[in-house]
Amino acid sequence: MTPYLFIFILGAAIGSFLNVCIYRIPQGLSIVSPSSRCPSCGSPIKFYDNVPILSYMLLMGKCRTCRAGFSMRYPFVEFLNAALYVAALSRFGADSPWILSVYCVFLSSLIVIFFIDLDHQIIPNGITLPGIPLAVALGSTVMPDPFLRAELLGWKASITGFLAGGGSFYLIAALGKAILRKEAMGGGDIKMMAMVGGLLGWKGVILTTFSGSLFGSVIGLSIILIKGREWGARIPFGPYLAAGALISLFWGQDILNWYLYAG
Length: 263
Ligand SMILES: [Zn+2]
Fold this sequence. Notes:
Elements (H helix, E strand, L loop, with lengths): L2 H22 L29 H5 L14 H20 L4 H24 L4 H17 L2 E2 L2 E5 L1 H27 L6 H41 L10 H25 L1
Antiparallel strand pairs: 1-2
Helix pairs in contact: 1-3, 1-4, 3-4, 4-8, 5-6, 5-7, 6-7, 7-8
């Protein structure tokens, strides 16, 4: 089996677990037990009907027992996670299996944050609270600098990233609260950016915030124009930040080089 096929299958299988996390974490349910059930009729999903991507296609997106339709999102999340693992292997495979694994875990947690924040406007502490110390510990010691991949990120850039990520978003939250007199930025965004900063460094915080805001303005404005949603409606920022962190991880070095030498 080629490494790419192997990591695709692994990514799809973990993607299937991410669906469980996205569905259960906001409800405060265990992500380990019980096994998956049909949300309509409650019948347990057999292991042979739980093969990532394939089962959905074979059953044409329906429960085997009650024929209720399952959301397209399930196979999509499985495919997305698999595709990101393949991209990570092609980008970081030469570094070391450990670095590749850390980035894969990071990418998977971005997917979970993306969908939970989209659905519930929360970024769960279950991910960010263990994620922050892990990101700082790994970022300070063994992880490369995503903007200068031949070198280690180092503890200075990791700690500065943690402080810049958490601190700047804390400031935005405090200012927003003072000016708008309501919660403009959730505590989840602050913790998420502290985690991103610990792993990607302070440059990662800048690029993540910049590209996240760019996505947010373009998509937010389109939603307002198309759906006529009012200004100031609470649109979650986490999904845009997750996309920005992904850009920083994969293309940070290219964007920095382009900015420094070609721009
Ligand atoms: Zn069913």
